[in-house]
Design goal:
Length: 192
């Protein structure tokens, strides 16, 4: 059995775009619930299998909500790019959507990796914000203020870095889509 086959399949996309951001977002809130309600912590320890299932569903649900919010941010970036290019961004995007490829150009694989990266970065950006809010809650529950503030600043810096990265990836994706919407060059096997 090939361990890395999972990373080449459809399992990798939900892991990166839903589960990791959802787990990041829920992490500080789970600690806060455990601190505030000792019975909750005891129940998690006693009923581990059920806890894992509930956590999996909570992480998945939160991850889906984060992905939805990330899509809204992406739409906002699309509107800004469309205004900046006087409608050309939207026109190129629609032209790309109407394209049916006979052969799979190299650029499509790159576009897929950019989409995955964009969705991951949007998820981590939003997951960091939700985790920072949980850290603020932890501060009110008695967490050391210096440690909490340091973690909140790290979460804010992480969110800011990913916001900047999202902007760059969004632009790169727009450039790749515009290129793919143009004519495709097919190289015969004897010319490779």
């Amino acid at each position: 059995m090939n361990f890395f086959a999972a990373f080449q399949s459809e399992i990798f996309r939900p892991l990166v775009t839903i589960l990791i951001p959802g787990a990041l977002a829920i992490s500080s809130w789970l600690v806060a619930l455990s601190w505030k309600f000792p019975g909750f912590k005891a129940a998690m320890i006693t009923h581990t299998t059920e806890t894992y299932w509930v956590l999996f569903f909570a992480i998945t649900a939160l991850g889906i909500l984060i992905e939805d919010c990330g899509a809204r941010i992406e739409i906002h970036f699309d509107k800004l790019a469309n205004e900046k290019t006087k409608g050309k961004h939207d026109e190129q995007w629609k032209e790309y959507l109407r394209t049916a490829f006979v052969a799979d150009p190299i650029g499509r694989g790159y576009a897929r990796s950019l989409v995955l990266r964009l969705k991951f970065q949007l998820g981590i950006l939003l997951g960091s914000i939700v985790a920072a809010l949980g850290l603020i809650c932890l501060m009110f529950l008695g967490m050391d203020c210096r440690g909490a503030i340091l973690l909140i600043l790290l979460a804010a810096a992480n969110a800011a870095w990913h916001y900047h990265a999202v902007h760059d990836v969004h632009q790169a994706l727009a450039d790749v889509r515009a290129t793919l919407a143009g004519s495709i060059r097919i190289v015969p096997p004897d010319k490779q």
